[in-house]
Amino acid sequence: MNLGIQKVEALDTGHFVRVEWEDGSESRYPCVWLRDNCQCPRCFLRSARARRLFFEDLDVNIVVKEVALADRRKISITWPDEHASEYEAEWLKKRCFSEEARAEMREDLFLPERQYWGSDLQLPKIPFEEIMYNDESAYKWLCTLKKVGIVLLTGAATRQGELVKLGHRIGFLRLTFYGPTWQVQDKADANNVAYTTGKLCFHTDYPVLQHPPGVQFLHCIKQTAAGGESGVVDGFHVSNKLKKQNPQAYQILSSTAVDYTDVGVDYCDFAMQCKQRIIDVDSRGQAVRINYNNATRDTVFDIPAEKVRPFYAALKEFDDLLNSTEHKFTYKLKPGDIATFDNWRVLHGRQSYQAGSEVTRHLEGAYADWDVVMSRLRLLRKRIQNRD
Question: Which GO cellular component terms are attached (predicted)?
Answer without folding.
Answer: mitochondrion
